[in-house]
Write a sequence for this structure.
């Protein structure tokens, strides 16, 4: 269809709308005019209407035009003003994802259409800058003057004002494009080879015509309504209904209704924030549903030219339409996000309501991107989504954005079967961290804990061992006749083939991916350790290091342990000199545990006694007694799982205890005794949950090392000399010269559970084993599910209610409730004293 | 019986520091009692002040021994630690080496500790440093001088020597007559 012809038609069409809008005064006249216009179809009629300026005419015309002609569908304020950005964005989107380059024809055409609309609109803008908010034509053909336009629009307008040259350039471009397009269309009509495209166009025209009819009907109805608010509301409801209808129709039968995706996108271009959000979310749901389980591949030229059956053709068309729509959907999301942050940079003041609205829109856009990332990572444009999400992991201002991004990355890591997504994400994240000069939010690093490297990645050394074993086996194999060997060989081949079919994931490929991921991860970790200027992130880094410790090459061991020791010592020195933040010994404990973990997982080759680390742990434990937040439970990124959440200090100490005494047999009794003595010393001062956890650890030590019952002996001292409680060396403090008198104190603790448990543990300590019935409460605490984590979480709330707080056998660990602001007090915080005080004051 | 001269103290403490480092302080500044080192018949004894004062009543020729013998000065003026000092060395040891059960007997017959017998070793042990040898039950067996550092031990072959023998508790039987 010729462009000019279309113009004429739509100008008249537009006129009718226009009149309706301005025409509360002269409704009837307008109606007549409309009829006239339709009959005559002459652009000249424009002059009749004096109320409207020409420029607005133009704008509205194209708005109108965009409303019902399919190929101008992309016209909206946003995309229009964003032209310079989109210019950049477009190649970005298509270049990065090589395979996903959609069909050239389709894309180019779409591009051209956008160009036209944008350029024309710009033109009009240049003519009249005052009019910046256009009335919108809704699906029902009703015109609404938007009260709040998107900030993005304003922003870009300012940009436009700054460089008027741009629009001129684009005019030129537009002309060129127009020529090109006409030529192409002529060629197409002549050749009629690109069937898919023609089909699409036809459908569009059918839709257009339908819409035109509908809109005409609507006009007549709605002219009677006068209250704009009611109109607005009705429009909203209608749009919502349409969203639902279109979405459900697509989901019901995606094959035939795929083209209606475009309609969804159009609705998203409404200026109403609520509708925008809804349509984004609707599109999200639709795409999540209809996206196939494979990646759509770009057709090669030979494939395109080759003859294919009708079905294949149909499928290809379907795929390309889906791809184009999906790409544009992603772009619109990206535009929203980019626009928001660009606008933030400009620091323009505006009303709170507007800010909230744009923020909520941003959050919805982020939500959509992250959802797509976690749900359909196999599909095209993954890298683009990933870049968009990763780039926002470290955003500070709306904190929800980075939280959502980090969470989605963590989910991606846990869901990743092939290792491919993790590798891509890691590359991007490591670049991000480097760019930020290793100064990022803690959560960015926490996502690494979810990498599926821990169990799945096997060391190549083990494979070598296997080969060696095979060699040995071969020698041991019994003699076989030639025939038997042949049969065996054939069987093996068959088995191998069977395996190939069975294995869905290529293990070798995955291993390679994971090795690469690991390399990036460790490079990042080591660099952060060496930099060491960022104490804030050290605990997270060390936690990750400990988690993947078994994968670190043994050659790095010495260096790594030296670095850990340095950090630990520095930290302790700072503490002794009263420098830095003194309250937390977290970093030191993390160093210690990382070292233990390194040694535990790879220490088979040589058994090393980490003296310095032991001593440092012993020395720093005394600080815990002074820290009221020692047992504070923090939430993990994804689940309420003790494996992933960042650990409290007492937890770290207890993990250290496990490594030192439980997982390996400790040789020196003096050392064990010294540690348990110090643990019980600090236990007297700790909050309830930490005391219970410490008691649990004491219990397991008593059971494992029965000689410790010497410490529970109240009759006489076993050792000679004097116990030196303040000496920071477990080997020299001579613990057997004292006894664990702290248990006596704990048995009269204010908390009933602590009382009972201390009694129970004390009985075990005296007997040296748990076999003997230990006290009246033994049955209650025998549950194997009870460990220190249980205590830490169950009693983690700083609230004490004697009626509630006794231990019941619980099937699963209950979810923690956060009571912030309540102090240690009876019955939910308010003490008698406070009540009395209030009464007195009121009296 | 007399206190050690400056020269003697220096030699003695240098030797002792090889094994227990700065923990010598803990030998002298004890919270329970005052202890001191006394020289008698070229041997150095670690003795509490109370006993030392009582021992002054006994003549030099008649006094055989007092307190715990730490070792003796050789004719060339060097100091040699005796196995009798093991209890104190073990308590304040800086570097420890645990020997597997199959390595206990060879060591107690006066042999060096081999890599194959090495059960466990303190991290960062340097080369040529005094170290206390323990059994896997944490019973001190003797002491020696390390032949390799901890990191070198890792690469050593099983027959390589890890610790050079200095003294072991087998000497209580083997050198019964010379111990005093």
């Amino acid at each position: 269809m010729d462009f000019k012809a279309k113009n004429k038609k739509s100008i008249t069409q537009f006129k009718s709308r226009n009149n309706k809008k301005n025409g509360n005064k002269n409704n009837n006249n307008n109606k007549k005019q409309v009829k006239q216009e339709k009959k005559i179809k002459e652009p000249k009629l424009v002059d009749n209407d004096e109320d409207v300026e020409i420029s607005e005419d133009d704008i509205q015309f194209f708005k109108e035009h965009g409303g019902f002609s399919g190929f101008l569908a992309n016209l909206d304020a946003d995309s229009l003003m964003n032209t310079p950005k989109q210019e950049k964005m477009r190649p970005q989107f298509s270049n990065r994802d090589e395979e996903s380059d959609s069909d050239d024809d389709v894309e180019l055409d779409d591009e051209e259409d956008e160009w036209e609309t944008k350029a024309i609109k710009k033109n009009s803008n240049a003519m009249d800058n005052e009019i910046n908010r256009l009335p919108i034509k809704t699906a029902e053909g009703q015109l609404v003057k938007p009260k709040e336009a998107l900030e993005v629009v304003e922003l870009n307008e300012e940009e436009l004002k700054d460089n008027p040259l741009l629009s001129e350039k684009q005019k030129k471009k537009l002309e060129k494009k127009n020529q090109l397009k006409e030529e192409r269309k002529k060629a197409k009509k002549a050749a009629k080879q690109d069937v898919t495209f023609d089909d699409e166009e036809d459908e569009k025209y059918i839709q257009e015509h339908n819409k035109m009819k509908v809109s005409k009907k609507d006009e007549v109805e709605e002219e009677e309504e006068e209250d704009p608010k009611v109109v607005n509301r009705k429009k909203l409801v209608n749009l919502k209904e349409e969203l639902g209808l279109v979405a459900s129709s697509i989901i019901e039968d995606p094959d035939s209704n795929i083209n209606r995706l475009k309609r969804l996108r159009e609705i998203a271009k409404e200026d109403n924030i609520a509708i925008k959000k809804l349509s984004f979310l609707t599109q999200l749901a639709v795409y999540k549903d209809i996206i196939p389980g494979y990646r759509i591949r770009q057709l090669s030229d030979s494939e395109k030219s080759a003859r294919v059956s009708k079905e294949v053709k149909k499928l290809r068309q379907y795929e390309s339409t889906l791809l184009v729509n999906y790409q544009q959907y992603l772009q619109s999301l990206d535009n929203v996000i980019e626009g928001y942050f660009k606008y933030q940079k400009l620091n323009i003041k505006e009303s709170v309501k507007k800010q909230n609205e744009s923020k909520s829109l941003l959050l919805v856009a982020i939500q959509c991107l992250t959802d797509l990332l976690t749900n359909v990572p196999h599909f095209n444009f993954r890298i683009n989504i990933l870049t968009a999400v990763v780039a926002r992991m470290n955003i500070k201002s709306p904190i929800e954005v980075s939280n959502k991004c980090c969470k989605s990355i963590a989910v991606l890591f846990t869901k990743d079967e092939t290792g491919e997504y993790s590798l891509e994400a890691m590359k991007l994240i490591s670049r991000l961290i480097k760019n930020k000069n290793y100064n990022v939010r803690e959560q960015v690093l926490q996502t690494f804990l979810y990498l599926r490297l821990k169990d799945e990645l096997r060391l190549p050394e083990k494979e070598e061992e296997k080969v060696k074993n095979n060699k040995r086996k071969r020698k041991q194999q019994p003699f076989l006749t030639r025939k038997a060997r042949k049969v065996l060989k054939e069987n093996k081949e068959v088995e191998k083939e069977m395996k190939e079919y069975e294995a869905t994931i290529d293990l070798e490929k995955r291993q390679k991916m994971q090795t690469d991921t690991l390399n990036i991860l460790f490079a990042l970790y080591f660099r952060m350790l060496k930099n060491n200027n960022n104490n804030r992130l050290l605990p997270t880094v060390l936690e990750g290091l400990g988690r993947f410790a078994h994968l670190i090459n043994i050659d790095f061991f010495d260096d790594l342990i030296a670095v850990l020791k340095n950090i630990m010592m520095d930290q302790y020195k700072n503490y002794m000199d009263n420098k830095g933040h003194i309250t937390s010994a977290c970093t030191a404990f993390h160093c210690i545990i990382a070292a233990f973990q390194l040694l535990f997982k790879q220490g088979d080759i040589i058994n090393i006694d980490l003296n310095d680390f032991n001593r440092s742990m012993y020395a720093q434990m005394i600080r815990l007694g002074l820290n009221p937040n020692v047992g504070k439970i923090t939430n993990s990124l994804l689940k309420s799982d003790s494996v992933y959440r960042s650990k409290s200090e007492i937890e770290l100490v207890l993990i250290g205890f496990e490594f030192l005494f439980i997982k390996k047999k400790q040789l020196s009794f003096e050392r064990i005794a010294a540690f348990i003595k110090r643990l019980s010393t600090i236990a007297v001062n700790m909050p309830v949950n930490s005391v219970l956890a410490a008691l649990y650890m004491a219990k397991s030590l008593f059971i494992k090392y029965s000689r410790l019952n010497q410490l529970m002996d109240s009759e006489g001292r076993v050792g000679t000399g004097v116990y030196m409680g303040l000496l920071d060396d477990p080997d020299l403090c001579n613990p057997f010269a004292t006894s664990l008198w702290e248990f006596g104190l704990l048995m009269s603790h204010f908390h009933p559970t602590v009382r009972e448990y201390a009694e129970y543990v004390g009985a075990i300590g005296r007997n040296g084993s748990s076999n003997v019935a230990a006290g009246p409460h033994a049955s209650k605490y025998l549950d194997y599910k009870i460990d220190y984590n249980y205590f830490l979480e169950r009693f983690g709330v700083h609230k004490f209610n004697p009626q509630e707080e006794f231990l019941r056998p619980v099937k699963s660990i209950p979810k923690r409730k956060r009571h912030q602001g309540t102090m240690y007090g009876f019955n939910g915080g308010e003490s008698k004293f406070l009540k009395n005080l209030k009464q007195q004051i009121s009296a | 019986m007399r206190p050690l001269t400056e020269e003697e103290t220096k030699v003695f403490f240098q030797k002792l520091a090889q094994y227990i480092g700065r923990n010598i302080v803990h030998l002298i500044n004890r919270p329970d009692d005052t202890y001191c080192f006394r020289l008698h018949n070229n041997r150095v004894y670690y003795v509490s002040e109370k006993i030392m004062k009582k021992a002054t009543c006994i003549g030099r020729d008649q006094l055989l021994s007092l307190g715990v013998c730490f070792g003796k000065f050789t004719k060339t003026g060097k100091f040699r630690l005796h196995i009798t000092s093991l209890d104190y060395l073990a308590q304040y040891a800086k570097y420890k080496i645990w020997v597997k059960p199959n390595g206990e007997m060879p060591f107690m017959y006066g042999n060096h500790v081999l890599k194959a017998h090495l059960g466990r070793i303190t991290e960062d042990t340097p080369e040529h440093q005094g170290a206390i040898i323990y059994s896997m039950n944490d019973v001190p067996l003797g002491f020696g001088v390390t032949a390799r550092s901890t990191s070198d031990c890792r690469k050593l072959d099983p027959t390589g020597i890890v610790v050079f023998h200095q003294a072991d508790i087998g000497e209580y039987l083997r050198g019964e007559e010379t111990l005093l």
In short: Residues 310-346 of chain A form the longest helix (37 residues). Residues 53-391 of chain A form one domain. Chain A has a mean pLDDT of 70. DSSP finds 35 helices and three strands in chain A.
